[in-house]
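pasting for ref
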Amino acid sequence: LGVVIGATSSLLSPQNCQAACFPGDTSKECIGVYKVPMEDAENLQNFMKKNPDAFKQFAPNVQTNVPTMAGVPRSLDEALEVLESQRLAADDIVNVIRVGKLEEGGIKLLNLIPRVSMAGRIVIRGAMASSPTLPTSSSSSKLEDGDEKAIQQAATIQQLKETQWETALNNVVFGFGECDILIGQGIRGELGVVTVAQISILSELKEAIRAYDDFLVIAQKQFPAASA
């Protein structure tokens, strides 16, 4: 219960009290509203199923629809395939927004974001797992000073590599999240007429897709055989 209460604390804050949805919920009501962080979603969903009344008390603003996402990647190869297919889906979203179908574009984006996030996490784990295992001082009692420095340098490089991956993926997810917010505002008329809303949304989509392409470049360099 303590974990669930901690996870729901952000959902009860004033800025998020209007509505919230689980990631992967493609209901039109979820366009542009707060999304439960993916790392908290499973615990909250389990708590909701077992304690529906208590859930309503702790998180009254969360939509209770629990999405079942098809095509969730389970392996590195599947994750890379998802990233490739969702890149095409991103172009489709651009085309839909260009013709003024904001709600349709928003629903497609709700489908894209969690898939890209999950696939990206699997790819990052695969990249880190494929890195060479570094010896430690405890694993060898006869390391020379130069060896220890080399190990420290290699560990630093590996940490920088992981940070690069994480930053690249966060830029993608954050960028598409901003698009989701803008589409919600456009649907509610908060951005003015549809044409003005389209310009703002398409501009943000362009930046998100650029970040997506940057992440794909890193993934394809790391796993060239899988992306061939």
